[in-house]
Amino acid sequence: MIREPAPRAVPRPAPSLGASSLLVPALQALTERQPQPEKKVPRARPMSGKAVVMLCATSFFVGLLLSGRTALLTPPSSDLSGYGSRIHLFADDCDQTRRKLEEGKPNDIMKEVSRTHQAIQSLDKSVSSLEMELAVERARQNGGLGVAAPSRGLPKAFVVVGINTAFSSKRRRDSLRDTWMPRGESLRRLEKEKEKGVVVRFVIGHSATPGGALDSAVDVEAAATGDFLRLDHVEGYHELSAKTRAYFATAVAT
Fold first, then answer.
1. What is the percentage of the chain residues whose pLDDT exceeds 70?
2. Residue 239 near residue 233, CB atoms below 8 Å
3. Beta bridge partners of 229
4. Which residues are within 8 A (CB) of 191 and not within 5 positions of it... i.e. 6 or more apart?
């Protein structure tokens, strides 16, 4: 049998490219190369005038505070030199005193002690003479003795014992009354000149608000016990020296 030959593939002509087919790839390339628009970064809002003023003021005060602390932490050099000179002077004084004690003889030390003792005795004598003159003058003013010689019958010793107390010390006062301080008739008998001539009193002034609750409580206690000496003085922790002076003035006038 005779076979027929297979048909051969006939090449087809390539389609012709028109102008439109050439422009499409060019447009695509242009569109791909065209840069995209950049995103705009949002701008911060400008600060107002008040905020700027407040920020400047805050910075100024912080600077003042820091400068003040540094000034406190670093004292001036003049103060440091003054402290050093004082310490040096104190050390020199201590050294001189120690040298005097070491170089001094026992006889010299005894002489100094005897001189001090004599000075104390002279002061005691002067105080005693002043007390005697005061007693004579008081008796003369009262019209009892006149200006007589001290050896012709001086009045008996008159002593005022003052016990410093405060508004909040009622328990201490009660404790003293229960232990050694006389009360009632014994206290009045002790105060008479014919017996002893000794006056014992709790010394107290008045509060900053006269007539208040504190003064009223002391008035009630004084009426019940009769052992208070009221001073024209305002009570206070830092007024003890003034209270002592007022007490002595009142005791002398009693």
1. 44
2. yes
3. 203
4. 197, 198, 199, 200
Cα distance between residue 26 and residue 32, in whole Å: 10
Tell me the average pLDDT of the chain.
67
CB 125 within 8 A of CB 107: no
At 94, the pLDDT band (50, 70, 90 cuts) reads low
Supply angle C-alpha 202, 208, 213, rounded to 5.
70
pLDDT of 212 higher than 80 = yes
d(CA 130, CA 128): 5
Q: What is the DSSP string of 95-147?
A: HHHHHHHHH--HHHHHHHHHHHHHHHHHHHHHHHHHHHHHHHHHHHHHTSS-S
Q: Which of 95, 113, 116, 93 is nearest to 105 (CA)?
A: 113
Give me the residue spans of the domains in the chain. 78-150, 156-253
Closest CA to 243 of 252, 233, 251, 228: 233
**Cα angle 103-108-111, degrees, rounded to a multiple of 5:** 155
pLDDT tens-digit map of 153-173: 444 446 778 888 888 888 888
Q: What is the pLDDT, as a whole number, of residue 164?
A: 84
Rounded percentage of the chain residues whose pLDDT exceeds 90: 0
Q: Which amino acid is at 236?
A: G
In angstroms, the Cα distances linking 82 to 74, 75, 76, 91, 130 are 15, 12, 10, 14, 47
pTM of the model: 0.36
